[in-house]
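Entry 14. Structure prediction run on the chain below.
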Amino acid sequence: MENPTPNKAAEQANLADRPATTQLPEANNASDANTTATPAENASEPTPENVKDTDISREHTRQVALDFLYRVWPHEGYWCAFTLKNKKAAQRFFTDRGKLVDYLLTQSDYGKDAYIACASFRTDKERKKDNIHGIKAFWVDIDAGKGKPYPDAGAAKTALEKFYTDVGLPLPTIVHSGGGLHVWWTLDRVVSQAEWDPAAERLKQLCVEHGLEADPSRTADSASVLRLPGTQNYKIPGTPRPVTCGAFMPPCSTDEMLHILQPVKEQPKNDRKPHQEQANESHAEQDSKYELSYAALAAEQCAQLARMRDTRGNIPEPEWYAGIGVLKHCVDGRANLHQWSDGFSNYSLEETEKKFAQALDSGTGPTTCERYRSLNPELCKGCPFKVTSPIQLGVVPPEPMPLRRELPPETSFPVAALGKTLGDAALAIQDIVQAPLAIGGQSVLAAAALVAQARANIKLPITQEGKPASLYFITVAETGERKSSVDLIAMRTIAEHEEELKQRYEKEYPAYVNELAAYEKERLRVLNNKKHKNRKEIAEALDALGLPPSSPLIPILTCPEPTIEGLCKMLATSQPAIGIFADEGGQFIGGYGMTEENKLKTATALSSFWDGRPVKRVRSGDGILYLAGRRLSLHLLVQPVVAGAFFSDALLMGQGLLSRLLVAAPNPTSGTRFVRDPRLESHAALERYNARLKAILDTPLYLSGINGNELTPQNVSLSVSASEELKKFINEVERQIATDGAFAPIRGLANKLPEHAARIAAVLALVETFDCETMLCKEVSESHIQAGIALARFYASEALRLFNAGMGDPNIVLAERLLQWLHDLPEREYITLPDIYQRGPNSIRDKATAKRIAGVLAAHGWLRRVKDGIDMEGKKRREAWRIIPKPTSH
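Output returned:
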């Protein structure tokens, strides 16, 4: 017998020492037996004689079993091991999971079926319901095999998947019991017998209702036993079958499970609308007491609802359900439901709708302030309102609110990370132009990337790939923030170098034309020479003549609005490293290359350039184009309205281009830029900056290829210490992109943050260490990679800031278009749903989209629902709204 009292400290130590494990392979055959246990606390423990496991496989099996038990059992109480052989049962209680696992694995080695009790117990006396301490899972037992409900485990699993999908249950952990399935929904907290019993009974009832052939005696028996993974099923004599565990699923939200499995209440007949109809409207439309309550207004005044809104539902499950308890009573509850829920990593429209319908069916009143205080008391501190429920704060229809919330304060641009040359230049530009520092910082870093990309690749430490030092920037600022002035100063040296290239081109081009004409005439002479007796002699003469002269390279380093076709055609005979740079970035975003029919190919090509892949194009008119060794950087300065449409484009979000962009959106400085003389050192700093860029630009490039414009940049490595710094950052980012991590909302960008940091570090290193004589750059130092990481963190914080302000929300863009269309309608007071999708903006041409976007406008107060519908053009329209006009200015 083990110690008579649980040893919690020992268990916690055991938990802390557990290594990471992998799962055993899943079995797909065998059947399980359900047995009745009798206490036998002092059962003998035979010594195994012919254990076949190696030490390694034995430890692996043991670790998987331990990992399983840590998930399915409460951490306190007594745990029961149960064995059966030749109809002789024995059970023992333990307070150490490791000893219990060793005991059952040994018993299994000797041909005994090994089970665990599914709950923990208060004492070590008996395995009965009235002795249960706690439960941390729900389970079902599905038999399969000859003479069983399902012919094999595969058929059982198919039925199970349909069951939990239809019911709306989370993914379970599945144990293959040697024939059937033991299905576990582990919980994130321990529940009592009183909480578990009615939910388990409902689970059993759902199995019957949905046709899942599960053993009813197990599903609602809290003292039941099921097989331990890693043991053998000996039900068929002479044919032991392994008991294996599939992938461990995350623990389910206990509150969600209890909500799904709550007992069904009997409803009076004819007391409720049909479920289909009821699911299409909020509870507010059935309950006149709250029909004028608006969640959007309530959230402006209630910190609890504001948290749900601002995090888009990325909050603990109990708080989310509390929010649903308010939304279901609000006029705009359904309209806000998905906007306030889709920030959760496992968000699903169907699941959210299902849970909202369940909330409607519950018949409960709105969530009270008392309930919120019990969940998150800190948010309720200092609340000035004398109300009993947040719903009371939304009873007055709100005035229309802006579709986009104002950006929160910007993160300070880490100008020191730019280093002496670039950092001083950014500060000088801010001093002279009095524009936001981030605009100057973006502009000088983009200019440096344009120069550096032709001369170096950055060699990543793990994959050892050489990646371009190219960077893509977007700077968001209002008109009047002096974007053009900043860009003009930052790009001065590049513009001057481009002019020098142009002059050289104009000088060399006539000579090229003459050489080409002479070459072609000489080639024609060779071909017409009758002294050549055969093809071989002609070929030898042509070889001696050589290739035609190469055209001087087109002297373009930047262009503001190219099409991809034009860009690729130009790169065949132009400078090999160019940039899409525009101080009016709307030229590019609103240009031909980004129209609906061209947007995808443009985004794909830009992503390929960023990745450093060769350009390969096959066109019937233009022929075959293969361009290796080309580089492209990008800097677009755009207004917020342009950026909003760009960042919220669903196609661009899905394609991946947005994750390659480094965005800054500084706060405006208008109203603070009073006339003053700049500092003397500012002009000196700009001179140093321009001199350094010019020195690098004047250095010849390593070129090859037929046209002499194929780059072969140096691969610059990270120093050992820099490599270690980057690896730490990679791990930091990986932790932050987890479901509850800080970078979860910007996972696309975050996945590329380490590479962004490395590219930035390479640019900084080249500006500081490039030797114009040897044309080589030193390795990237630890200080350079730390600077790159600091800048990468800044861009991550800016992306989160923009995300939280709704700048990346496609629904807001559509809502803005619909609102503009509504306000342009002459003398129109009401609008119906068919009006929107039949006559409205082209981007809202189906019923579902129209209803969703109308809901966004209703949530912001620009549309107010007509409760009983409206007669419009001789037809009754059930879904109609009153249009709220634009506020008049005084």
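Confidence is low (pLDDT under 50) at residues 1-56, 266-291.
Filed with the rest of this week's runs.
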